Amino acid sequence: MWFRALILHDRGEAPFYQNFWARADHLGAALDEIGRAADGLGLAGATIVQADPVPQLPDVEMEGREDLRWDKVRFAFAPDGSSTGFVLPPGVVRSATGKDVELHAGFRQVEGNPVTRVECAVSAERLIRDHEHLLRTFEPFVVFWYELQDDWEEAGERELYVNEALDRAEPIVRHLESVPDLGWRNGHVTLTAFARAGATNVSLTDHKTLRVTTTEPALAERARDAFHLLGYRRDDQLPMVSEGIHHWHHRPTSSLGRAALIARLLELGFKKWKPGG
Fold first, then answer.
1. Percent residues over pLDDT 70 in the chain
2. Are the CB atoms for 200 and 88 separated by under 8 Å?
3. pLDDT per position as a tens digit, 86-117
4. 43-66, pLDDT tens digit by residue?
5. 30 burial level (CB within 10 Å; 0-12, 13-18, 19+)
6. In whole angstroms, what is the distance from residue 246 CA to residue 238 CA?
7. I need a surface site. Which of 33, 79, 94, 102 has the fewest CB within 10 A?
8. What local confidence, expressed as pLDDT, does residue 77 receive?
9. Three-class SS string for 173-230?
């Protein structure tokens, strides 16, 4: 399958956008190949801002090779000194279709009865560090789990794999550091640590946001304080990529498919768990 990606290169005095196309088995593999190609063209630090599957290559002048092409035309724009936009973390990428909503870092609170949700949009370079900070804020935990989304490989089932030995921030982070492409960079999984007080879930979602859900107002306040301490501003109208913005989830080339990931988690001591089971 062919995939198209729009890259932004904004380092230097003449920023520009450029289209790339790659043929690969899945979106993440295509994006990895495009990233390497951009580096090879001297575009180190370029950002992939949009991506989509395409039925065929367009009729435009291209360069490249059999499975990788790039547009000969670069779309330059005049820099105005402002930021060129919020860069989503690895695992999720915006589509060129749908609403053109500006995303930015920050957090919001959604009140519920009885569950309150505090969720933070985090940029790519902050994700891992801020996830660790949040885990340390709420430890100890009862259990840690991977939630495999039901639309990944059209499985039609949301699956949870749990590990009770991962009950504090340090072993959780150590585990994730050992398999970064299976968790942190995999847009098909949500990673959750569960604390008994307030039935609190501390999650890095499949949309690569940091989210705390809890029934205890004091723990919702703790989450707000943690995000404030990290430098994020509260905005309860903050748009999230998960809501009404067309996007795709992806995983790195070096990651595992669904069945292989399940097998690896079982090897690592995780067990399948069904809510209510």
1. 97
2. no
3. 889 999 999 999 777 889 999 999 998 899 99
4. 988 999 999 999 999 999 999 999
5. buried
6. 16
7. 102
8. 86
9. HHHHHHCCCCCCCCCCEEEEEEECHHHEEEEECCCCEEEEEECCHHHHHHHHHHHHHC
Of 65, 63, 46, 66, the residue nearest 5 (C-alpha): 46
Q: Is the pTM of this model over 0.85?
A: yes
Cα–Cα distance, 32 to 29 (Å, whole number): 5
Integer angstrom CA distances of residue 230 from 102, 204, 207: 22, 16, 20
- Tell me: the pLDDT tens digits for 168-219? 999 999 999 999 999 999 999 999 999 999 999 999 999 999 999 999 999 9
Question: According to the model, what pLDDT value does residue 85 have?
Answer: 65
DSSP bridge partners of 272? 161
As a whole number, mean pLDDT of residues 23-33 equals 97
